[in-house]
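lol forgot to send this yesterday, sorry. struct tokens for the thing we talked abt
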């Protein structure tokens, strides 16, 4: 989660959580039959996670500890200043393919580098 440069990302942990759900789902319901169904299930799972995170975030933001500060507005300001999203988006795309959440495409490069820029090898 925490990189050597002080930056942090939860992408790997969130994907691992979604993968754990997928394993549990397939154990209970059976294997997902095709790429479209897998994509729909994963989209729903991630959407559900996003709803849960937003609920937690909104409730935390209402805490009187912040007084007149609006932590949600501070986050938006931070996001607007964030650079390098295209590079992160490319790594996420490769990670989605590596995990089998979306089908591999012939024109895509090797997906051996993880979302956080580190090799996925053991």
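and heres what i got for the seq, position by position
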């Amino acid at each position: 989660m925490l990189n050597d440069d002080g930056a942090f990302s939860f992408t790997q942990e969130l994907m691992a959580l979604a993968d754990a759900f997928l394993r549990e789902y397939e154990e209970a319901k059976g294997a997902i039959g095709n790429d479209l169904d897998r994509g729909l299930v994963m989209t729903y799972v991630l959407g559900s996670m996003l709803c849960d995170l937003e609920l937690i975030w909104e409730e935390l933001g209402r805490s009187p500890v912040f007084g007149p500060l609006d932590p949600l507005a501070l986050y938006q300001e931070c996001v607007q200043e964030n650079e390098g999203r295209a590079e992160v988006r490319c790594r996420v795309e490769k990670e989605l393919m590596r995990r089998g959440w979306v089908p591999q495409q012939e024109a895509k490069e090797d997906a051996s580098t993880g979302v956080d820029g580190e090799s996925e090898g053991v």
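The chain is about 60% helix and 0% strand. anyway ping me if u want another try
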